[in-house]
Protein: DUF982 domain-containing protein
Organism: Rhizobium binae
Amino acid sequence: MAKIERLLPTARKLHIVDELAEIRKSCSNVKQTAHFRPVGLASMGLGHYAVINSVWDAARTLLHDWPVDDGEEYFEAVKACLDAIIGDLPPDYVRAAFVRAAQEAGIAVIEVAD
């Protein structure tokens, strides 16, 4: 049972990756360049410094480069990305959710001044 519980976050992540790919393929009205004020990330888990400035960058980073694949803020950020991609949420909400997920994961967030 413990092994199954450990696999659940990975299974959910794979399902979300598949869903994101399907949305990107099938939606002609997807906001592919939904930009927001840049967020800098610095983490040993990421292995580098990254600048995230769009919904797609946030989604890709969360699903492919994130050091942990569970946590309430992580899943809220992924959901926010999906909602923004289909046009139900403004990019600034994704940015806020992304920053909270980074803080939850212990990733240093570097804010860019307005």
In short: Residues 2-111 form one domain.
